[in-house]
Design brief:
324 residues; mainly alpha
Length: 324
């Protein structure tokens, strides 16, 4: 019982620590979106992204959700989505397209900096991730609309009060709704941390690592760099950032392999945690998991073959360099 109590306390401490750092970013975003809604400015901020959103079958307002994910993190984008969803309803297909795009391209200021410190060029990694997100969003939109798949109204698993926030809503009611929303997200964090501990306890992450080794070899990533790739794919770039940078700086890895590994994990990382988060906002596994994995494997496989034909000087200038 003492051991169980200690583990529960440890889980609680971790959950509070993660939540504290997340909420420091999310609460200002939440307030800013509320102010923008009250002033009627949301639609105008979404205008620049409207052509891109229309191209992937999404309302223009969802551009603000994706932009928040790009600049901040997934949790912040979830807050914005829940704030807008009542006025801008989505189908399950649309939610899946949006969720998949968020998973491919989010937290770019942090994650691109980690990639840059490990060697790959920041500009290429940024353009590749944003472009890949738009590409997979467009493909999923064509598939879902062409086959009339997932066209039912999206079912969001978070607090239904979280999305309420019309201009006529009393301020106190809005505050209460957002507190419930943040409490729901805290509950998600606790659940995710608990799930990760279970996965480690039953060695499921170890099993996944073993299964990924031959797949990465088939794609073209060397055995030494596959360790980095597995860290990112399972834990995420931000969580495994320190270890990724250390391994890249060790000198034991070829900079080509570091480039391939960071590109792979940029497109498909944190397969457990991030996937479960997007299920909470109605994302279907066909997009948020399987399409994302396929996108990452195909893209890196093509890059391996393409870079073999490019001059070393070109690659050193535009694709990869020495760790910083």
């Amino acid at each position: 019982m003492a051991s169980l109590r200690e583990k529960a306390l440890d889980l609680g401490r971790d959950a509070f620590s993660v939540s504290y750092h997340l909420f420091k970013v999310m609460v200002p975003v939440l307030i800013a979106v509320k102010i923008l809604k009250e002033l009627g400015l949301i639609q105008y901020l979404a205008v620049p992204l409207e052509p891109l959103m229309r191209g992937v079958g999404l309302p223009a307002e969802m551009g603000l959700v994706w932009a928040t994910a790009l600049l901040n993190n997934i949790y912040s984008s979830m807050v914005v989505l829940l704030t807008l969803i009542e006025d801008t309803p989505l189908t399950t297909a649309q939610a899946t397209v949006l969720a998949t795009m968020i998973l491919v391209a989010h937290s770019l200021p942090v994650e691109l900096k980690i990639a840059q410190k490990s060697g790959p060029r920041l500009l290429f990694q940024g353009v590749m991730r944003i472009g890949a997100a738009l590409l997979i969003g467009w493909i999923l939109h064509l598939v879902y609309s062409g086959f009339d798949w997932l066209q039912d109204p999206v079912r969001i698993l978070l607090s239904p009060e979280a999305g309420r926030g019309t201009g006529e809503e009393p301020l106190l009611s809005w505050i209460v709704a957002q507190i419930r929303n943040l409490a729901s997200i805290f509950g998600i964090i606790v659940g995710l941390l608990f799930a990760m501990r279970l996965l480690e306890r039953f060695r499921i992450t170890t099993l996944m690592n073993r299964l990924l080794q031959p797949v990465l070899h088939l794609v073209g990533i060397g055995p030494k760099a596959s360790t980095i790739a597995i860290i990112g794919v399972t834990l995420g770039i931000s969580y495994g950032g320190g270890l990724i940078i250390r391994e890249a700086r060790s000198g034991r890895l070829d900079k080509r392999d570091v480039f391939y590994a960071l590109t792979l994990m940029g497109l498909a990382h944190s397969l457990f945690e991030d996937t479960m988060l997007m299920v909470m906002i109605g994302g279907d596994l066909s997009g948020i998991l399987w399409a994302r994995i396929a996108l990452a494997l195909v893209t890196v496989s093509l890059l391996v073959r393409l870079t073999a034909r490019l001059s070393p000087r070109f690659c050193d200038r535009f694709l990869w360099g020495e760790p910083r």
